[in-house]
From TrEMBL, chain A:
Stated name of the protein: Copper chaperone PCu(A)C
Keywords: Signal
Domain of life: Bacteria
Gene3D superfamilies reported for this sequence: PCu(A)C copper chaperone (2.60.40.1890)
Keyword presence, rRNA processing: no
Pfam families for this protein: PCuAC
Claim: Aminoacyl-tRNA synthetase is one of the keywords in the record: no
From TrEMBL, chain B:
Record-annotated membrane-spanning stretches: 15-38, 50-72, 308-331, 352-385, 405-425
Membrane among keywords: yes
A cellular component annotation (GO) from this entry: plasma membrane
Lineage: Bacteria, Pseudomonadati, Pseudomonadota, Alphaproteobacteria, Rhodobacterales
Entry keyword annotation includes Lipid biosynthesis: no
Record protein name field: ABC transporter permease
Keywords: Membrane, Transmembrane, Transmembrane helix
Origin: domain of life: Bacteria
Length: 172, 435
């Protein structure tokens, strides 16, 4: 039977790759937990940006979501930028008889002592002209502007059909 | 190349996809029929086997029609529910289930929900981004029509322009939805509750219909809008105003005399304002939600179901066609003697193949075409039934998606039809001639 040697050969050829993949996985698991948390949280004064995330995509645009907590005086989200995208726009979802769509918003005030959630079918930062495809597990740096205050966040790339950050619900 | 594709008008893209899906069938046809004129014999075969052809075609047509109509319906329902929610930018209610509150406030499905109090209501009204704030008080009904307590401003906002009459200007006046069986000038007595649980005669008051809204395609077409003050008074509650009220319904309400409302509709000055107000009124005391967002999430779920339905529809159609092709194989056995005679007369083997394949494919193509036609009729009937049951205007139409599905089905089954054709071609001529 000619099939069996072929299957054996394939096994032999694939084995090192499988071992390598196992190694990589182990390495991830040993990652310092504290370091991981630092990625999920960005602070500037009384502002906290938590759980920034986006979805894996091959398209040149992506939506970034996060939670914004403001313990201080009212701030106004005026925009954002990312070294990975040509343009970042604040957008808001609107449902009409023809279906739902995201529309650009010029700014968004975040009142004192409130939390604003950027989430699917709600508010988001839309990245246009994304330089390369985003794969699950990647990270995406975004600088969010509140007037003169700029907050750097690292968005976690989740699965293409994700509905929330994989650590959503964790307290930071 | 990708850019070129996206630059094409959507209609052209859809037509191109349909054509691409049909290409395999056309390709098979071109190869199978090359060099032969099967037309005259095919017509004779169809005539001779008229009844069987009609039954087989009908089977394929019905399965195609049901599949297409179901998928079109899902799209129609999605558009209908979105249209019905279009005017409801933001709803504020007491904390609880958003879906229950949405079904009650937007689609008027009766529900017991906690109330928003007068102080919170006053805060919403006072918000700098608020443009229109109105209570939506449900709970009473007249026959099957929900009686909703609200303000004249909300009635005007919902209807745009009244079809007839005027807005309510005094307590115990009402504006009727387009499909309510009451004319301007008629009176009605509300019952407490809805449907079978409604208690007639609990409220000893008469409302007079003074205006009628145009069709909105939403459950509000079945509703009676009345001043919220009347609803409160009917339930022996404070009427929302102080003792020296001039009995002209509407804002401003006095928080001290405000008995509460199950839901508050909010229209903000802009889309951004709507989100600002949502953040402002999402706390321990109230929840503020976008019916559009909840709907979009439900639609995403429906989209997943649609994918499954599309696959099921194709599987059903293919199964029906497989049955038909099995029937055809048996039919060709019955015709074996004639086909063998053809061969004996000098027809090449491939001619028999081409004839059998084109017979099967004719039934498939005819069935698919008639199925699309039947699908249009079935879609209309199903939409009317859903609209009658839910009052959500569902206008489902067959679209490109269904055409693509049917085109894919034709190609797949035209390929399947090669099998009976091949079996027929390889029958032994001599024994068939003797048999």
């Amino acid at each position: 039977m000619p099939v069996r040697p072929l299957a054996l050969a394939a096994l032999v050829a694939l084995a090192p790759a499988a071992l390598l993949a196992g190694d990589a996985h182990d390495h991830d698991a040993h990652d310092d937990h504290a370091e991981e948390h630092a990625d999920h949280l960005a602070e500037a004064g009384d502002l906290r940006l938590v759980h920034a995330w986006t979805r894996a995509t091959a398209a040149d645009h992506a939506l970034v979501f996060m939670e914004i907590e403001n313990a201080g005086a009212t701030v106004v989200l005026t925009g954002a930028e990312s070294p990975m995208a040509e343009r970042v726009t604040l957008v808001a979802f609107r449902m009409t008889g023809e279906g739902g769509a995201y529309e650009a918003l010029p700014e968004l005030p975040v009142a004192q002592g409130t939390e604003v959630e950027l989430a699917p079918e709600g508010l988001a930062l839309r990245l246009d002209g994304v330089a390369r495809p985003l794969a699950e597990g990647d990270t995406l740096p975004v600088e969010v502007r509140f007037g003169d205050t700029h907050v750097e966040v690292t968005a976690q790339v989740e699965a293409a059909d994700a509905r929330q950050h994989s650590h959503a619900g964790h307290a930071h | 190349m990708t850019d070129l594709w996206f630059a094409l008008p959507v209609g052209v893209q859809d037509a191109a996809i349909a054509l691409a899906l049909l290409l395999p069938a056309l390709g098979i046809g071109a190869v199978a029929l090359r060099g032969f004129r099967v037309g005259p014999l095919l017509r004779a075969l169809l005539r001779r086997q008229a009844w069987i052809s009609v039954v087989f075609t009908a089977l394929i047509a019905v399965s195609v029609a049901l599949g297409a109509a179901l998928i079109a319906q899902e799209r129609g329902l999605r558009e209908g529910t979105a249209r019905a929610a279009e005017k409801f930018d933001l709803v504020v209610a007491a904390p609880g289930s958003e879906i229950t509150a949405m079904l009650a406030a937007v689609y008027l499905q009766p529900a017991d929900v906690p109330l928003v109090d007068g102080e919170t209501y006053a805060e919403i009204v006072a918000h700098p981004r608020a443009e229109l704030v109105a209570p939506i008080g449900f709970g009473d009904s007249w026959q099957d029509a929900p009686v909703i307590g609200t303000t004249a401003d909300f009635a005007a906002y919902l209807s745009g322009r009244l079809a007839e009459g005027r807005l309510f200007a005094r307590p115990y006046e009402a504006v009727a939805g387009a499909r309510v069986d009451l004319s301007v000038g008629e009176t009605f007595q509300p019952a407490h509750g809805h449907g079978d649980a409604a208690q007639e005669g609990m409220h000893d008051v008469d409302y007079e219909v003074v205006g009628r809204m145009p069709m909105t395609g939403s459950p509000w077409d079945r509703a009676l809008l009345v001043p919220i003050e009347s609803v409160w008074e009917v339930h022996v509650l404070p009427n929302g105003h102080g003792p020296d009220w001039d009995r002209v319904p509407g804002p401003p309400f006095d928080p001290a005399h405000f008995p509460g409302t199950p839901a508050v509709l909010v229209k903000a000055d802009s889309l951004g304002g709507t989100y600002v107000m949502q953040a402002a009124f999402t706390d321990g005391e109230t929840m503020a939600f976008f019916p559009g967002t909840i709907l979009a999430r439900l639609h995403a779920l429906m989209g997943d179901i649609r994918e499954v339905m599309s696959i099921l529809a194709v599987i059903t159609q293919v199964l029906v066609t497989a049955g038909v092709l099995a029937g055809l194989t048996m039919l060709t056995r019955l015709l074996a003697r004639r086909l063998a005679l053809l061969r004996a007369l000098g027809a090449p083997r491939r001619f028999v193949f081409a004839l059998t394949w084109s017979y099967a494919t004719t039934l498939i193509v005819l069935g698919a075409a008639i199925g699309l036609g039947l699908g249009i009729a079935a879609t209309g009937a199903m939409s009317a039934a859903i609209t009658a049951r839910t009052d959500i205007l569902v206008e489902a139409r067959l679209g490109w998606r269904e055409v693509h599905l049917v085109a894919g089905f034709v190609s797949l089954t035209a390929a399947l039809a090669l099998l009976p054709a091949w079996l027929t071609m390889n029958r032994p001529v001599m024994s068939d001639l003797r048999g």
